[in-house]
Amino acid sequence: MQEGASQGMFRGRTSALLSHSPFQQIDICLIPIMAVLYLLSHIDRTNIGNAKIEGMDKDLRLTGNQYNIATTIFFGTSLHAASRHRV
Known about the structure:
Layout (H helix, E strand, L loop, with lengths): L1 H17 L3 H32 L2 H4 L6 H21 L1
């Protein structure tokens, strides 16, 4: 008896999802994923800043703009790799 009830629940969810337009279905699937990726990107940028405050630039003996150049190269290549992966 429970198998039939669980299948009925599944059908209800599926029919509710199928009643939306294709763009709404895509939005329903992509928005949570994009939100998580945005959060991870923000955490990554914050950690780089915290590492500099804690003395990473001194540990690596970076002088002048070397730290800024290193972070620019890191995020530039990260952005390029992410955009190449989406194509």
